[in-house]
């Protein structure tokens, strides 16, 4: 079997392992709700939720709120991930930079990322920029720490060999540091996306008038629970697609680790 087929088989098997228990829970939920063991008012059958989700997508409201949340998370991910990778590479390679920057990263890294949201809103106000920035900072911290760790675990022999052969700073980053830390970079990106999707729901519940988090909160307050579950379905699907997409891309770009 070729390396490409092996990677695809590994990703597919991993996805199957994760989806199997979810499908089992949904099946049990469907049966129990149909038998009224679970109150269908509070726990509508998944088949009903799927129908409501499809109807709301066709009618437009759910599609609009999904797009708003997607735009926010993508902007936050681009800002947080690019800056996190850049700073993480720099911290991992340069000891003076690490001594200068790492104390600040270490200060904020252990803080629950959700706790950063009210702090940001208090300092900078409730604006769209601050919503995106709050998510970006959380993603930045995870990606920067993972990337720094990836650079630090590279065998010194590879770095010495590159320097002995006349590699400049750019060539060192391109040929040694980035490839050598790539698996940790993608681990950080995956973690950052997971935290980002958690934060987007909280931020939109607290301080937004659009987005899936807002729709979840508003539906709960109005007791339109089927709409609430439809929004939960969409945020879950987005998270699965993007997180597994990043994992699959990481497996493809670090093919040598599977050999």
Automatic annotation (TrEMBL):
Record keywords: Cell membrane, Membrane, Transmembrane, Transmembrane helix, Transport
Subcellular location: Cell membrane
Species: Halonotius roseus
A Pfam family annotated for this UniProt entry: BPD_transp_1
Transmembrane segments: 15-37, 43-64, 73-93, 105-125, 132-151, 185-207, 228-246
PANTHER family per UniProt: ABC TRANSPORTER PERMEASE PROTEIN MJ0413-RELATED, ALKANE SULFONATE ABC TRANSPORTER-RELATED, MEMBRANE SUBUNIT
GO biological process, one term: transmembrane transport
CC terms in the record's Gene Ontology section: plasma membrane
Membrane topology: Multi-pass membrane protein
Domain ABC transmembrane type-1: from-to ranges: 66-250
Family: Belongs to the binding-protein-dependent transport system permease family.
Superkingdom of origin: Archaea
Name of this protein: ABC transporter permease
């Amino acid at each position: 079997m070729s390396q490409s087929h092996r990677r695809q088989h590994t990703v597919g098997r991993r996805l199957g392992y994760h989806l199997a228990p979810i499908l089992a829970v949904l099946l049990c939920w469907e049966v129990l709700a149909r038998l009224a063991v679970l109150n269908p008012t509070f726990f509508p059958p998944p088949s009903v939720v799927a129908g409501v989700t499809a109807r709301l997508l066709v009618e437009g409201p759910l599609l609009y709120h999904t797009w708003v949340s997607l735009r926010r998370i993508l902007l936050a991910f681009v800002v947080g991930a690019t800056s996190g990778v850049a700073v993480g590479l720099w911290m991992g390679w340069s000891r003076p930079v690490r001594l200068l920057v790492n104390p600040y990263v270490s200060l904020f890294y252990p803080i629950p990322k959700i706790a950063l949201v009210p702090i940001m809103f208090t300092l900078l106000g409730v604006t769209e920029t601050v919503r995106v920035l709050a998510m970006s900072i959380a993603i930045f911290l995870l990606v920067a720490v993972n990337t720094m760790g990836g650079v630090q675990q590279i065998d010194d022999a590879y770095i010495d060999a590159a320097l002995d052969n006349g590699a400049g700073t750019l060539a060192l980053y391109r040929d040694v540091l980035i490839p050598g830390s790539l698996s940790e970079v993608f681990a950080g990106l995956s973690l950052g996306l997971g935290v980002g999707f958690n934060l987007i729901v909280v931020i939109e519940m607290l301080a937004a008038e659009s987005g899936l988090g807002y729709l979840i909160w508003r539906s709960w307050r109005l007791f339109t629970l089927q709409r609430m579950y439809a929004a939960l379905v969409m945020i879950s699907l987005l998270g699965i697609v993007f997180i597994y997409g990043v994992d699959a891309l990481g497996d493809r770009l670090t093919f040598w680790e599977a050999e």
